[in-house]
Amino acid sequence: MPISKRMSRLHSKDPADAAWRARQAQVDADIEGLSRDPEADRLAAEMAAAGIAPRQRIERLKAYFQARQTANLGEK
């Protein structure tokens, strides 16, 4: 794949490129040894299956992680 195509995938709004970025983020997290959040994965899969727009998915995932972080801080 030419480098120009690889670079454009990083900023493209094409759904295939967005899916590629998501897979790359998972690979990067695995390489770094970062743990996964099964609930977030489930939520993301449900939203994708329901056809929710990417911008709305992002906002809902942000809200999920913010709520989780707030709950974790309250436990300490």
Would you mind describing this structure in some detail?
The structure is a single chain. With 76 residues, this protein is an all-alpha fold. The chain has 2 domains: 1-36; 37-76. Helices cover 78% and strands 0% of the residues. The chain contains 4 helices and no strands. The protein is globular and about 50 Å long.
Topology:
Elements: H1 3-9, H2 15-32, H3 38-49, H4 54-75
Helix pairs in contact: 3-4
Distance between the termini: 48 Å
User: Which parts are unreliable, with pLDDT below 50 for 5 consecutive residues or more?
Assistant: none
Assembly type:
single chain
**How many discrete domains?**
2
**What's the tally of helices?**
4
Pairing-aware structural class of the strands and helices?
mainly alpha
What is the averaged pLDDT score? 87
Radius of gyration equals 15 Å
Can you summarize the main beta sheet?
none
> How much helicity do the residues have?
over 70%
Order of helices and strands: HHHH
Overall outline? globular
Number of strands: 0
Beta-sheet strand percentage?
A: under 5%
